[in-house]
Specification:
CATH class: Alpha Beta
Enzyme class: hydrolase
Bound molecules: 2-acetamido-2-deoxy-beta-D-glucopyranose
Order of helices and strands: HEHEHEHHEHEEEHEHHEEHEHE
Protein name: glucan endo-1,3-beta-D-glucosidase
EC number: 3.2.1.39
Helix content: 25-40%
Largest sheet: 8 strands, parallel, barrel
Structural class: alpha/beta
Number of helices: 11
Shape: globular
CATH architecture: Alpha-Beta Barrel
Pfam families: Glyco_hydro_17
Catalytic activity: Hydrolysis of (1->3)-beta-D-glucosidic linkages in (1->3)-beta-D-glucans
Strand content: 15-25%
């Protein structure tokens, strides 16, 4: 408090200036260190209240959240804390209506973006999650994204400087991913995803990708070393031209970058919108392996880019905040939580 006992106004102004500088600088550090988010899935019948969940994020220093639908209680709880950045999801089952009727999109934007507390820090709208080319929603995805974008642009175009409309895809869209430089979208996915990549490039938006070394590992445990999937390999496992890969996470992410480059887009960011490892219910699904994965992926993305994008810190969202007892069909789907529904950590994790 002595700091504020300025004897004259000049000292007082200096004190205020230093105080503001300090706040400004600590703000910079905060955003710099905040590359890790956590997905808040709610497919469980025993989860804490939305307000308790937002408090749990804050108490653990988790500065980014992904939600899968515009749950009003979550948005209201977040409205008090603009320091939490949000990816807001549009459920897959809403895509067709948003695509075929612009007024539905205008109402969606009004009800879920513009009318809730203005302090909710929404950075990305993910229209759909893991839509695949054979899904009935696939043909409606780009028009739905366009309608939401247009609704935002006509209601409040300034908001589009910080809020990007995008979608979240999975690695099944890659026909080839090994080595990472050979990454490309499959023939069956191309007609669906390439116009979306072009839309994102046109708007300066990132692509969101769900990346699971766990599923790659259990799909091919003979050829994929567990240590490569868990970030514990002592050295380079895959040498790809000039780039050496010591972990599978980077390899899959760079395969996405290669696929996007092959479409002619070189400067798009890929944000990892989900990554995780189950602690029970299947091959390699143990508390020890899961805690190793989560801590290593946190440490990795906070300090590194991928080999192809070495100058850019990776943005990633861990899947998920809680074990969700109503997910399935695989037993492992119920064991991806960092926390139990009673809000106790399942293993010690430092964010
Ligand atoms: C991790 O998974 C592997 C492969 O299933 C298993 O053999 C190993 O026991 C697990 N490690 C730990 C520490 O749980």
């Amino acid at each position: 408090m002595a700091f504020f006992n300025a004897r004259n106004s000049k000292n007082f102004l200096m004190a205020v200036a230093f105080l503001l500088l300090g706040i400004f600088m600590s703000g910079l550090e905060f955003t710099g260190a905040q590359s890790v988010g956590v997905c808040y899935g709610r497919i469980g019948d025993n989860l804490p209240s939305e307000q308790q969940v937002v408090d749990l994020y804050r108490n653990n220093g988790i500065g980014k959240m992904r939600i899968y639908d515009p749950n009003q209680a979550t948005l209201e709880a977040l409205g008090n804390f603009p320091d939490i950045e949000l990816i807001l999801g549009v459920p897959n089952e809403d895509i067709q209506a948003l695509a075929t009727d612009a007024s539905v999109a205008a109402n969606w934007v009004q009800g879920n973006i513009l009318s809730h507390p203005p302090m909710v820090n929404i950075r990305y709208i993910s229209v759909g999650n893991e839509i695949r080319p054979e899904d009935s929603a696939a043909q409606f995805l780009l028009p739905a994204m366009q309608n939401i974008y247009n609704a935002l642009a006509s209601a409040n175009s300034a908001i589009l400087l910080q809020l990007k409309v995008t979608t979240s895809v999975d690695a099944t869209l890659l026909g080839s991913s090994y080595p990472p430089s050979a990454g490309s979208f499959s023939d069956s996915a191309s007609s669906y995803i390439i116009p979306i990549i072009q839309f994102l490039a046109d708007k300066g938006a990132p692509l969101l990708a769900n990346i699971y070394p766990y599923f790659s590992y259990i799909g091919d445990p003979v050829n994929i070393d567990l240590s490569y999937a868990l970030f514990t390999s002592p050295g380079v496992v895959v040498q790809d031209g000039a780039y050496g890969y010591q972990n599978l996470f980077d390899a899959i992410l760079d395969a996405f970058y290669s696929a996007i480059e092959k479409v002619g887009v070189t400067n798009m960011e890929v944000i990892v919108s989900e990554t995780g490892w189950p602690s029970d219910g299947g091959t390699a699904a143990t508390i020890e392996n899961a805690s190793t994965y989560y801590q290593n992926v946190i440490n990795h993305v906070k300090n590194n880019g991928t080999p192809k994008k070495s100058g850019t810190l990776i943005q990633a969202y861990l899947f998920a905040m809680f074990d969700e007892d109503q997910k399935g069909p695989a037993e492992t789907e119920r064991h991806f939580g960092l926390f139990s529904p009673n809000m106790q950590p399942k293993y010690p994790i430092s964010f």
